[in-house]
Specification:
This protein is about 40% helix and about 25% strand. The protein is an alpha+beta fold. It folds into 2 domains: about 35-125, Barwin-like endoglucanases; about 150-225, Alpha-Beta Plaits (2-Layer Sandwich), CATH 3.30.70.
Amino acid sequence: MQLQLAFLQIYYQMHKKFFIFYFVIFYSCSSNYTIYEKKGFAKKNNGNNIISSLPKGTLLKITNIKTKESRVIKTDEKSKNLGPRLIILPNTLYTELKLNNNLPFIHLQSLRKNNSFVAKKAKIFEEEKRVNKTIKLEKINVLKLNKEKKNEDKIYLNFGPFYYKSYANQIFKVLNLKINNKNLVFKDYKEKNYAILIGPLNNLGEYDRIYLKLGKIGLIGFDIKVQ
């Protein structure tokens, strides 16, 4: 009886170690792909290259946040000197996405390179194009309306939400000190959902100046809203 119990303990320990080993291997294999997703502004390029801070050949889905127009693209060049821009696009792609010259607000999302994943994204894209065709007239009207009111769009930078109010207060104090314009920094406090906002910024020139100030103090982890 004691021999059987000893055998069972050894058997359990061996399989326990195997399970832990399998879990580590599985986790390391399944987590070696980092998803990139960010909102920001694009820049127009007279050349043909798509330039970003990501490695050359990175597959991305780029979406015009205002019109929902999207494309799947592959980066041609990596650059560390994009400044406040997420990506530099050729003029042709810039036009295809119907980006606003004043506020080219975009959403970037990385895609996996395996065929099944890309095919699935392409299928969704085809459905979006069919929907766009069915409401073509309505969409043109909306674009005209946006064009007339384009100067009314403002940029807001959102820090948070923070679970603890003390963290939000620290960010608020730092921003007030560094931005040198207390009218731009304000609080949006809700219980366990504390946020700090910078804005309204009227154009990309103002956004660029604020971005450079934030970059110097390492506070560029914000979400962008245009409204």
